[in-house]
Amino acid sequence: MTDQTERVLPRPTPETVHFWEGTRTGELRLQKCDDCGKIYFPPRPFCPECGSRNVSTFAASGRATLYSYVISHIPAPGLGPPYSVAVVTLEEGPRLMTNIVGCDQTPEALTLDMPLEVTFEAQNDEITLPFFKPAA
Amino acid sequence: MARGTVAVVGAAETTEMGVIPETSELQLHADAALNAMAEAGLTAADIDGIAAAGEAPDVLAQYLGITPAWLDGTLIGGSSFMLHVRHAMAAIEAGLCTTVLITHGESGRSRVEAKGFPEFIGGKLAGQFEVPYGGSLPPTMFTIPVLRYLQTHGLRPEDMAPVSVVQREWAALNPRATFKDPITVNDVMNSRMVAYPFTLLMCCLRTDGGGALILTSADRANDFPRPPVYILGAGESAEGPMVSQLDDFISSKAFRLSGERAFAEAGISHDDVDHLMIYDAFAHVPLYGLEDLGFCKPGEAAAFVGDRNTAPGGSLPLNTNGGGLSYMHSGMYGMYAMQESIRQLRGIAPAQVPGAQVSVAHGVGGMFSVAGTIIFGNEPA
Ligand SMILES: [Zn+2]
Questions:
Q1: Given an 8 Å threshold on Cβ–Cβ distance, is B129 in contact with A69?
Q2: What ipTM was estimated for this complex?
Q3: Tens of each residue's pLDDT in chain A, 136 residues
Q4: Which domains does chain B have, with CATH numbers?
Q5: Which helix (H) or strand (E) holds B102?
Q6: I need a labelling partner for B298 at 20 to 30 A (CA). Which of B136, B152, B175, B226 fits?
């Protein structure tokens, strides 16, 4: 791991490939149960609330708030310290892990509940990661 | 399961503890197992059930010469061994086997044929949705909920520091502890920042070691050289390995469910607890544990520790071996928490709590997402 300079990238599976197709085209895709209405993440082809396989995919607004985070000083592949490792709450409800970009990586700049918006960064031809930045 | 029907009749750690570069991970399991069997006056021929985490139970069985009628390889991180104890209780009560060996060994520092924790692979959900952002190591995963917890309760990062300070006081009483020199809140806050709000002295050690337990039915428990330690109650729960998907960041659902089950089964109240172990991978885990197990109200654990209730001489001795913060931490520390509970109830702990009769050992696993709780007593009922 330590000799790796590139960020460790996801390997999409058949059940998640729609999410990674979405980020490539600038969409943050969530899933919704067509039976009970549950909106959920991470991707899977069934509803974690009621078990229905009758689910659909939609583009989220990209708006979120900062739920919690750490500012890591540990070198990680492709990530230069200090960098935030954050969990954000999407406007639609689910939470996801991300990095907060476009601001200082300090406790003063990163305040809980601050409004955020998604921003996409292509890592290679296949993988575009969703990051979040302070909302305009 | 019935209270006190299964007992620990053998409990031992590895011969050495700390830095053990001459021993493979497999042999650390075996060293602890041999020590526990010797203490119980048993050989491999007497063991008919085996559980292990980090190394598969069939590998251990073959290596140790055990022919198992029951195996458990539950691997959910540091509290795996609490779950093994609970599963072994059920197996012994059900008559699936009579005498269970549970082993842990981990070359956490020297990495001699050490295995990695298996969740962090690119195609798994954590590998796709956490690892790319740096959520690949315990210091950046276990710790993520804490700022939300601190803000909710009006606390500051330095309010966690007394956890580290008090556990160092306990470690000073333990000759086998890795770190024994006293530290202050200032020392904790001024140590190197690892992952804000966590400084180095709020993070567990990385050492080599192991431990093993031998369980059998209570009706046989007095036939062994050491006084038995009975299992009064046990619980387990899990939310899965992804910290981003935890139900709640200011309280652990897995801790609450595991603790409630253990206390209900034991039929005891918190006032009955003489001694407590809460797996301290990081300084916040004992705070969540004190609250989620019901010893403190939400948001009050930091002051409870700061007021020295868990320190030597306090009303609720906690992590009396020095914990993962100062004693040792091989990677999956839950075994050592139970070893200390058992030493306390046998009356042989280096920092002995006078007259300890009931001890609770609470383990955390996954990335702050799995729990196992065992309540031990030195009387069956
Ligand atoms: Zn549903």
A1: no
A2: 0.96
A3: 344 578 989 999 999 999 999 999 999 999 999 999 999 999 999 999 999 999 999 999 999 999 999 999 998 888 999 999 999 999 999 999 999 999 999 999 999 999 999 999 999 999 999 999 999 8
A4: 6-114+205-377 (3.40.47.10)
A5: strand B99-107
A6: B136
Between the alpha carbon of residue B59 and those of residues A66, B65, B189, B259, B270, the distances in Å are 45, 10, 44, 32, 40
H/E segment holding residue B256: helix B253-266
Q: Is A54 exposed, middle or buried (0-12, 13-18, 19+ CB in 10 A)?
A: exposed
Q: In the prediction, which pLDDT does A2 show? A: 42
pLDDT of residue B102: 98
Cβ distance of B244 and A96 shorter than 8 Å = yes
Using a CB–CB cut-off of 8 Å, the residues of A that contact B are: 7-13, 16, 41-42, 67-74, 76, 79, 82-83, 85-87, 95-99, 107, 112, 129
- Look at the alpha carbons of B25, B27, B28, B32 in this order and tell me if their dihedral is positive or negative: positive
Q: State whether B129 and A86 contact (CB < 8 Å).
A: no
Could you read off the pLDDT of B190-210 as tens digits, one per residue?
999 999 999 999 999 999 999
